[in-house]
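Suppose you are handed only these lines of text.
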Amino acid sequence: MNQNSTRINGKMGEEISNKQVILNNYVKAYVKESDMSLRTSKIQLKIPSGCDDAVLLKNLYLSIDPFIPKHMKKEENYITPYKLNSPIFGYGVSKVLDSSHPNFKMGELVWGFIYLEEYSLIKDPNVLFKVHDKDLPLSYYTGILGMPGMTAYVGFFEFCSPKKGETVYVSAASGAIGQLVGQFAKNAGCYVVGSAGSKEKVDLLKNKFGFDEAFNYKEEQDYNAALKRYFPDGIDIYFENVGGKMLEAVLSNMRLYGRVAVCGMISQYNIEQHEGVHNLLYILTKRIRMEGYYVTDHYHIYPKYLEMVMPLIKEEKIAYVEDIVEGIESVPGAIVGLFSGRNVGKQVVVVARE
Ligand code: NAP
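From them, the structure of the protein bound to NAP can be written out as follows.
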């Protein structure tokens, strides 16, 4: 046992029930609530002996993210499938109940990779970060102060190198990441248009997040014509969240030396046969730089991101919308809901309050 390990008082060693979200079967096309179920198992409130460098967490907020169903497929390139009948992993905000790791102490709050369950024993806490500012809502560490915030920052600033006056298009723009990208782009002096799937979301984009324009892509017969309406002189930067036919229309409307940050392609996650994009030639002729990235490769710049975003939050210069539902029982429905656009803003599930 590590010298710096900490122990909880009173309930030390007690065995309690632990509700977990488990995967019942591998998924081929659209994820359904019945692909997951809730299981109650037991967990001891103590790090097992011999388990060095581990933390035992009480999970408070679970982050519901579009990547989750990608891990429900048995075979997908470069994606680790979930284990059947085991709790599924994801992001969350948690309190440390016990630790045998020198960097974490009992009572600390952390965010990062956990399992979607009430309590988690994390044996390799290398993707856990400390919550430094407890004055802000803890749920923010599933979003603006956590993985989605970093994803917006890395994609927009590191990959797109925005310049004042450039034109920016953001798809899935009212979601966890899109709402932040749009506001970062406005702060950088860009002209910003977003698309989303309902009138309520379009209103949010224009009236709360300050996008210059927004449209409901579900009401557009022709994405190419819609983009021409909002970008008569073309798009400099596309923040890609959806893929498929939208990407094809965007490539037709990109300007010379445009940049496309490929953050996600949500329209492709739940279909067996990925859609084709037929005008990739434009990447060459327009000298477009298009690059996919995973936020997990960039966590070393998290402090730099915090330095930028903390003042914006504290000075209320950035708006942030969350969609918070209660109880671990809500997790399967919340995951499925991401793919019909049921969430308005960052989807979070509260399992416990501190
Ligand atoms: P989100 O936008 O909060 O939620 C997903 C939204 O996507 C839904 O609300 C829905 O909004 C839209 N959507 C669902 N199906 C769609 C479809 N077929 N076509 C168009 N829009 C669809 O999710 P997020 O967390 O911000 O994630 C946004 C994207 O970033 C996702 O593609 C995700 O996989 C990706 N991501 C990438 C990284 C990375 O490291 N690269 C990290 C995290 C997330 P509407 O009502 O507008 O349709």
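What can we learn from it? The pocket of NAP is lined by residues 65-67, 148, 151, 172, 174-178, 196-198, 201, 241-242, 263-267, 293-295, 338-339, 341, 343, 346 (CB under 6 Å). The chain is about 20% helix and 25% strand.
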